[in-house]
Design a protein that fits this description.
The chain has 157 residues and is mainly α. It contains 5 helices and no strands. It is flat and about 75 Å long. It is found in: Periplasm.
Length: 157
């Protein structure tokens, strides 16, 4: 019978630790399977007794809503990059920084209004019972992504 060499045992243990460590390093909900299974209510899946017509109308509304938001999201990304550039330059121009911050605020307001309108458009498709359940759930993106910007770069008190 072959006796394993200590070097082989160490390599095997290291490989096992590497594999199991990386498996636990990925938080749930990040990856290709993230979609409807993680957030079924975003697409009306938690609303009971939806008809096929309601599902189709909701899908059309969602596509229109996404098309309306996309240019604003793109502009928002550009403004945030501009703000980062202005904030980190050697000669900081507070007037320009404040202008970009105001622009970002206006875009956020526009996006919130579009989301509110979309939510009301979806509500119009629902029966009274469905509407009660729909209203009981917090709208997606109401408070932004979890932990967005919280304690960024800060030490605990």
């Amino acid at each position: 019978m072959l006796k394993p060499k200590p070097r082989h045992i160490v390599l095997l243990v290291a490989a096992l630790l590497l594999v199991t460590g990386s498996a636990f390093a990925q938080p749930p909900g990040h990856g290709p399977e993230r979609g409807e299974r993680q957030h079924p209510r975003e697409h009306g899946m938690m609303i009971p007794d939806l008809t096929e017509a309601q599902k189709e109308q909701m899908k059309e509304l969602r596509v229109e809503h996404m098309k309306a938001l996309q240019p604003l999201r793109n502009q928002m990304g550009e403004k945030k990059a501009r703000l980062r550039t202005l904030s980190t330059s050697d000669k900081v121009n507070m007037t320009e920084i404040n202008r970009v911050i105001d622009d970002i605020g206006k875009m956020q307001t526009q996006m919130m209004k579009l989301r509110a309108q979309h939510r009301q458009d979806v509500r119009k498709l629902l029966t009274d019972e469905q509407r009660v359940i729909f209203d009981a759930h917090k709208p997606p993106h109401q408070d932004g992504p979890p932990h967005a910007g919280k304690h960024l770069g800060r030490k605990p008190h």
